């Protein structure tokens, strides 16, 4: 995996996008240690909801003690400690986890789009639903994820405080085809949970439902959109670039091996 992050990130923008990202996908437990945020959610395995997130590159006081303390919180959940490395993480902390044998994984690109001036394609429009249970069922089906996660996913979506649009495309015979969640936080619109059922990919459904969400956000005065995509997801990156999204920064995770 490539560990390298962009040479120079716009740190104020990174801080703002990290903050809206936390509000768009809220963890059930958040504890601060200095500028570090320790996020834990017992019922959901998402790394966004379960990770140590450093938010100040200069905050590296007592890193060994603090990292061990934060890691113990994960042990209580019987899961390995996970650290999120963004441009806001101290190099001293990253050197420490490397020395301790932590493993990097899931490099992700955060992309933004000038929504006010974006030329959105003329696709079929879809209106958001207010039925969270139905949306969760559709998202789990298109993602092909166990329905056992329904209570946890529903809890996360219910906890989102900014206005949210839940978009779905369904077929009366075969069921859910695509989903996307759009969270509007003042002038920023976050795109989450974009999913197309595997059998219907490359048919334009992703573009159709994503464009609907972006139009909805723009009508509600959002000026910029943001999203997160794994570096290996080339089809999705191509789609986002087509709509005008560009890379803002990257992050990756580091995992502590419970057996060490």
From TrEMBL:
Record field: transmembrane: none
Protein name: Ribosomal protein S18 acetylase RimI-like enzyme
InterPro entries in alphabetical order: Acyl_CoA_acyltransferase, Bact_Acetyltransf, GNAT_dom, Rv0428c-like_C
Keywords linked to the UniProt accession: Acyltransferase, Ribonucleoprotein, Ribosomal protein, Transferase
Domain (N-acetyltransferase) ranges: 122-260
Entry-linked Gene3D superfamilies: 3.40.630.30
Leader sequence residues: none
Pfam families for the chain: Rv0428c_C
GO molecular-function term, one example from the UniProt record: acyltransferase activity, transferring groups other than amino-acyl groups
Classification via SUPFAM superfamilies: Acyl-CoA N-acyltransferases (Nat)
A Gene Ontology cellular-component term: ribosome
The keyword Isomerase belongs to this UniProt entry's keyword annotation: no
Origin species: Rhizobium metallidurans
């Amino acid at each position: 995996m490539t560990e390298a992050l962009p040479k120079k990130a716009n740190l104020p923008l990174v801080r703002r996008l990290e903050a809206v990202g936390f509000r768009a996908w809220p963890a059930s437990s958040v504890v601060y240690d200095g500028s570090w945020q320790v996020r834990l959610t017992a019922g959901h395995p998402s790394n966004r909801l379960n990770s140590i997130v450093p938010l100040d590159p200069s905050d590296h006081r007592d890193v060994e003690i603090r990292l061990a303390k934060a890691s113990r919180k994960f042990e209580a959940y019987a899961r390995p400690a996970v650290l999120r490395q963004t441009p806001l993480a101290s190099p001293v902390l990253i050197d420490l986890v490397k020395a301790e044998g932590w493993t990097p994984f899931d490099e992700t690109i955060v992309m933004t789009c000038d929504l006010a001036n974006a030329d959105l394609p003329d696709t079929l429009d879809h209106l958001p639903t207010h039925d969270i249970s139905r949306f969760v069922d559709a998202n789990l089906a298109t993602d092909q994820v166990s329905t056992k996660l329904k209570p946890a996913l529903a809890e996360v979506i219910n906890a989102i405080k900014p206005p949210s649009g839940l978009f779905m495309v369904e077929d009366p015979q075969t069921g859910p085809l695509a989903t996307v969640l759009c969270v509007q936080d003042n002038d920023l619109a976050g795109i989450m949970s974009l999913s197309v059922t595997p059998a219907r990919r490359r048919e334009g459904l992703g573009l159709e439902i994503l464009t609907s969400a972006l139009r909805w956000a723009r009508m509600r005065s959002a000026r910029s959109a943001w999203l997160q995509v794994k570096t290996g997801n080339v089809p999705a990156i191509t789609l986002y670039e087509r709509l005008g999204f560009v890379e803002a920064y990257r992050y990756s995770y580091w995992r502590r091996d419970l057996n060490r």
